[in-house]
Amino acid sequence: MKVIVNGEPRELPDGASVADAVASVTTAGSGVAAAVNDEVVRRSAWEATPLRDADRLEVLTAVQGG
C-alpha cells in the first residue's frame, strides 16, 4: 500500500501499523510523536493502529537545542 509519510510517498506492506511506519523513518527511542490524517495517535496505540492506503502519517521528533 502507498501512504504519505512526512509529505513523501512511501510503499508499506499491507497491514503495516503506525509502529512499523515510524520504525522505518526514525531510530529515535523517545521524543517521537505520530499523527495519522491529522489525528495524534498515542504511542501505546501505535502497534494496534493499522495504516490504510492513502493515509497521511506525520512523524515528529523532538530535538533539544538553542
TrEMBL record:
Pfam family membership, one: ThiS
SUPFAM superfamilies: MoaD/ThiS
Superkingdom assignment: Bacteria
CDD domains: Ubl_ThiS
InterPro entries named in the record: Beta-grasp_dom_sf, Mopterin_synth/thiamin_S_b, Thi_S, ThiS/MoaD-like
Gene3D superfamilies for the chain: 3.10.20.30
Range of residues in the leader sequence: none
Record-given protein name: Sulfur carrier protein ThiS
Source organism per UniProt: Actinomadura spongiicola
